[in-house]
Amino acid sequence: MFKTRKPSLHFAEQKKIVARLNSLSEKVEELKKLQTQTAADLDALEKSLLHQAFEEKL
Fold it and tell me: What is each CA distance from 38 to 17, 30, 51, in whole angstroms?
């Protein structure tokens, strides 16, 4: 039979760690959204610059 180990951290410490991980997870998700938006903005800028270049506006 397998023996289970008792957690070495107190419940309060575990809650603190979980809260920190949740906070970091939210920040990661926000950064992913910002990265996606930045990529879209750069794509639009590139298309605009190419259009201006071919229209001889640069």
Answer: 31, 12, 20
> With b meaning 16 or more CB within 10 Å and e meaning fewer, what string describes 38-53?
eeeeeeeeeeeeeeee
What domain range is 52 assigned to?
A: 33-58
Task: Answer for the pair 47, 39: CB distance below 8 angstroms, yes or no.
Answer: no
Residue 27 counted as domain residue: no
Decide if 46 is inside a domain.
Answer: yes
pLDDT of residue 1: 62
pTM of the model: 0.66
The total of structural domains in the chain comes to: 1
